[in-house]
Amino acid sequence: MVRGDPSDEMMLLWGLQQPIFSKPNAFVSQSSLNLSIDACGRCISISQSPSSLGTPGVTGSVMWDSGIVLGKFLENAVEKRLLVLQGKKVVEVGAGCGLAGCIAALLGSQVILTDMPDRLRLLKKNIEDNLYGDVRGCATVNELTWGDRPDPELVEPLPDFVIGSDVIYSEEAVTDLLETLVELSGTETTIILAGELRNDAVLECFMEAAMEDFIIGRVDQSGWHPDYRSPRVAMYVLVKKLDSAVATC
What would the pLDDT profile of 120-176 be if each residue is shown by its tens digit? Predict the structure, then answer.
């Protein structure tokens, strides 16, 4: 559990993992139009849009290691019976290419993948390309801009899980992201966020603000999929504080 000053967590995290000394993009190729990965007994094929990568304001057009780590973490946790996703409602925020949401659906969840309007076409394509045949769960796509009030289908009922990868990337977006996470979660909701370790100031800013409403714990890499661990990625679990949940009712 993360306690006290978030700056202490940043010093510990960067000191332990030393992300700048490890190879970036160990599991992805962002210059490719397609990324393939084995998960849940099938080969998942994720379409990317590398030409959009450098466009100002455009996010989620390609995969990052944190998305692979999150998706394989879910698969490994279910396989080891550390996590139950069968029949659970899952909302993926900032879904981008949608890998983690697709894996959650293959693991039996009722998934709603969300992102900004310009990302939905790619999301829908990746769902259609990969969730075919005998799928234990299901997936739909919904527009969600952080800071805006979520559509009723996202919060009625509240999700069992909210997941996201590489969603903590700028201090300017922290307030809107946290507002959305508060809206999407109750005391029975588990939030799982994986992210690239690029800027300790941004993560510290998020952590400091999030601690007002959430209890936060870092997931040790020993609990990740053994083949998908990276010093450049961190994963956190957030659960809403009881007093915060009462205050938002």
Answer: 999 999 999 999 999 999 999 999 999 999 999 999 999 999 999 999 999 999 999
Any idea how long the chain is? Answer: 249
Q: Which domain holds residue 204?
A: 6-19+27-247
Number of domains in the chain: 1
Q: What backbone torsions phi and psi does residue 80 show, to the nearest 5 degrees?
A: -90, 5
Give a yes or no: residue 1 inside a domain: no
Is pTM beyond 0.85 here? yes
With respect to residue 91, please indicate whether it lies within any of the assigned structural domains: yes
- Within a domain: residue 53? yes
Positive or negative, the CA dihedral 13, 67, 187, 209 is positive
Determine the Cα–Cα distance for residues 49 and 214; give it in Å rounded to an integer. 34
Write out the two tokens for 87: 């029949």
Instruction: Read off the tokens for 17.
Output: 């993992």
Chain centre distance of CA 73: 11
127 close to 121: Cβ distance less than 8 angstroms: no
Tens digit of each residue's pLDDT (9 = 90 or more) over 48-69: 998 887 666 657 789 999 999 9
**154 in Cβ contact with 184 (< 8 Å):** yes
> What is the CATH classification number for the domain harbouring 112?
3.40.50.150
